[in-house]
Write a structure and sequence with these properties.
By secondary structure, the protein is of the alpha/beta class. The protein folds into 2 domains: 123 residues, 3-Layer(aba) Sandwich (Rossmann fold); 72 residues, Orthogonal Bundle (Arc Repressor Mutant, subunit A). It has a 5-stranded parallel beta sheet with strand order 2-1-3-4-5, sandwiched between helices. The longest helix has 15 residues. 37% of the residues are buried. One of its GO terms (molecular function) is DNA binding.
Length: 216
């Protein structure tokens, strides 16, 4: 059972998410928070597997809350709730350790699927939106980033490079396994090593590093 914490300053949003997730098998909404500080306190007080995190909230915003939560011992996954016009906030949230993002108008079945995917280690980032985020976050300081990225990418084996390139293109684990003729377990093992070698905490960070190194 995936234990979910809903974090949003709008009670109607929390109620709607609660209704959507309440009927989903394998998912249990165990708590709600109206701001980031409450979310942090809740994670410290009770077991939570995944936090659905709004970005713009009073007291403590979702970006800072994500940063704090993801540095806790055995932290839950964090999925941010956002809109297309908040790309700068998405980049900052991903840099803070978020596992991905959902648009607030995402259809209910897709929200359930996204939670299941994140808990299984699968990406929930649209390739098109990921490409837009890469363009935004790499707009300045290209030379310095390229040198740092090339140094990190040079530590990857040839097979890890293949997997990292596929991750950068927005491929899911299943798609990578099919394209590279690997088992899912092997793909996941490669991705774990890639995260460690590239000092990345999510797949967008891998994509950004591969882009900066001229590999995408």
């Amino acid at each position: 059972m995936t234990r979910v914490l809903l974090t949003d300053d709008d009670p109607l949003v929390r109620a709607g998410l609660g209704l959507i997730l309440g009927g989903a098998p394998g998912i249990e909404v165990v708590a709600e928070a109206s701001d980031g500080r409450e979310a942090v306190a809740t994670v410290r007080e009770r077991p939570v597997d995944l936090v659905l995190m709004d970005l713009r909230m009073p007291v403590m915003d979702g970006i800072e809350a994500t940063r704090v939560i993801t540095t806790e011992p055995s932290p839950p996954k964090v999925v941010v709730l956002t809109t297309f016009d908040a790309d700068d906030h998405i980049v900052r949230a991903l840099a803070a350790g978020a596992a991905g993002f959902l648009l607030k108008d995402t259809p209910p079945p897709r929200i359930v699927q996204a939670i299941e995917a994140v808990m299984a280690g699968e990406p929930i980032l649209s390739p098109a939106v990921t490409a837009n985020l890469i363009r935004q976050v790499t707009a300045d300081g290209a030379d310095q980033r390229r040198t740092a990225a090339e140094r990190l990418v040079a530590t990857l084996t040839e097979r890890e490079l293949d997997v990292a390139h596929a991750v950068g293109q927005g491929r899911s684990n299943a798609e990578i396994a099919a394209e590279l003729f690997m088992s899912l377990a092997t793909v996941k093992a490669h991705i774990s090593r890639i995260f460690a070698k590239l000092d990345a905490s999510n797949r967008v960070q891998v994509a950004i590093t591969m882009h900066d190194a001229g590999r995408l």
